[in-house]
Design brief:
Blueprint: E1 5-9, E2 21-28, H1 31-39, E3 47-51, E4 57-58, E5 63-70, E6 75-80, E7 84-90, H2 95-104, H3 122-126, E8 129-130, E9 133-134, E10 139-146, E11 152-156, E12 177-187, H4 197-202, H5 213-227, E13 235-239, E14 245-247, H6 248-257, E15 264-265, E16 270-272, H7 275-281, E17 288-289, E18 292-294, E19 301-304, H8 310-328, E20 337-338
Parallel strand pairs: 2-5, 3-5, 4-20
Antiparallel strand pairs: 1-2, 6-7, 7-12, 8-9, 10-11, 10-12, 13-19, 14-16, 15-16, 17-18, 18-19
């Protein structure tokens, strides 16, 4: 077993930069090492938190239990056909670096997810998505270890019960598994998704035949950088809230008072409304309360202005939720895990 740190600071393990402490912290670099911890029973009756890049968590207090930092590495080709390639990547790999690697190899499918922070193992747990694409569209299966038994299981795509920023690992199986590796099917031919409005604008007037994979990835990165602050400069976790999904009937009622309300059709009965627009319309964009604030370029992002506590950021989020509920009768659901 590797060294176990006691009362370890979590400040460098979360992108909000909150200086909470973990009772125990250990770096996991292999499946065998993780299995050894599980089978010796050290996690029995203990709280266990799996941390990748800590880009989707807000600590409001110290963590009384075990924090496992996933550092299992490795990328390998599983198989290759004329049209596609199957690539397996370990849970500890940096997601953004993995997407860059795929772009360099000219493998299509994940380029719209460029520059998303965090580790690869968190991608299916959160079912990360951006600019019209979700990781579940390319994911074939994943291998995970049960934290109670140490046994590994293969979860096919359909087993994961993927939803909007959700999976079985956030619902019925929450806290039971560590993602060891994920297998993706990526295309060797052009399969761009440029329907998201800013991407469509970026390539307006340019023929699809003249666009390459690198162009799309760089456009996505430029859009993200223009809206989202760098966590290395100012603490944040990207989008703090999910975009709410409402019925078309409710949308119709809202349009009576807010004729310019933006929305994206989900199906015949429901639409998605940008949470950032709701928050901005409630005049929260750029506001600061104490040491926490709302980003001045993207109202969906809450930021740690100057050594904010997790409680300050949580309380700011609650105030925003209250105002949005009062104005629009819509409940905002945090995308970030609040502990």
């Amino acid at each position: 077993m590797t060294e176990v740190l006691e009362n370890a600071s979590l400040k460098k393990y979360n992108t909000f930069g909150i200086d909470a402490k973990a009772r125990f912290l250990v770096h996991i670099s292999s499946a065998n090492q993780l299995r050894e911890y599980v089978t010796t029973g050290v996690f029995s009756n203990q709280n266990v938190l799996i941390l990748g890049g800590g880009s989707n968590v807000l600590f409001t207090q110290d963590f009384d239990g075990w924090v496992l930092v996933n550092e299992i590495m490795g990328i390998e080709k599983v198989s290759e056909e004329d049209d596609y390639i199957m690539i397996k990547a370990a849970g500890g790999e940096n997601w953004s670096a993995f997407v860059d690697y795929c772009v360099e190899q000219n493998w299509h499918g994940l380029e719209n997810l460029s520059l998303i922070p965090g580790k690869l193992g968190a991608a299916p747990v959160q079912n990360i998505g951006a600019y019209g694409v979700e990781q579940c569209e390319s994911m074939v299966c994943l291998e995970a270890m049960n934290l109670k038994t140490g046994e590994t299981s293969i979860f096919k795509n359909e087993d994961c019960e993927f939803g909007y920023r959700s999976s079985i690992f956030k619902t019925s199986e929450k806290g039971n598994w560590v993602v060891l590796n994920v297998t993706y099917r990526l295309w060797k031919k052009q399969v761009f998704n440029l329907e998201y409005s800013p991407l469509k604008t970026a390539f307006e007037g340019i023929s699809i035949e003249s666009i390459n994979l690198k162009d799309v990835s760089e456009a996505v990165k430029n859009i993200r950088r223009s809206k989202l602050p760098d966590p290395a400069i100012i603490g944040n976790a990207g989008s703090f809230f999910k975009n709410p999904i409402v019925s078309k009937e409710k949308l119709g009622n809202l349009k009576i008072r807010f004729s310019n309300i933006p929305f994206y059709e989900i199906d015949n009965n429901s639409v998605k409304i940008p949470a950032g627009w709701l928050i901005e319309t409630c005049n929260w964009k750029g506001k600061t309360i104490g040491n926490a604030g709302v980003h001045d370029k993207q109202a969906l992002v809450l930021v740690n202005k100057v050594n904010a506590s997790g409680i300050e950021i949580r309380d700011l989020a609650r105030k925003i939720q209250s105002d949005v509920l009062e104005k629009f009768s819509i409940e905002l659901d945090p995308e970030v895990l609040i502990l």
